[in-house]
């Protein structure tokens, strides 16, 4: 239910698969008092296998989302959205590793800005129709 409240683009298919798996289990009739019927046990194992498959697809979706994220700010927003909805420990651990990746990319961004600054600090580009000193400051 938490997943459906948060509007994360592209998550619709994973949600649809989740609702399909849970609805299949809910629709099956069981006699709880019949301990000799092991149909529930088999269905529960199948349900767990389907949930594991959904976790894997969600993991792939998360990885893909961070691969195509253009900026550090967007990646941090995406991380906070995912952290708000993730409850499984395996997915939380992966999100923690994404934080390290985000800050590694942020460090690379800062180094690129520093290289551009060092390249142009002695002779900055002047704005058009601006006085020399004020144009270099802007």
How many helical stretches?
6
User: Into which percent range does the helicity of residues fall?
Assistant: over 70%
Q: What's the alpha carbon Rg, rounded to whole Å?
A: 25 Å
Strand content: under 5%
SSE ordering: HHHHHH
Largest sheet: none
Strands, total number: 0
**C-alpha end-to-end distance:** 50 Å
What integer is the average pLDDT?
Answer: 83
Envelope shape: rod-shaped
Structural class: mainly alpha
Low-confidence segments? none
Describe this structure in words.
The protein has 138 residues and is mainly alpha-helical. It has six helices and no strands. The longest helix has 32 residues, at 89-120. The model has no long low-confidence stretch (mean pLDDT 83).
Write a short abstract of this structure.
This protein is mainly α and 138 residues long. It contains six helices and no strands.
Observed structural traits:
138 residues, mainly alpha, 6 helices, 73% helix
Protein topology:
Elements: H1 2-5, H2 12-27, H3 39-67, H4 72-85, H5 89-120, H6 132-137
Helix pairs in contact: 2-3, 4-5
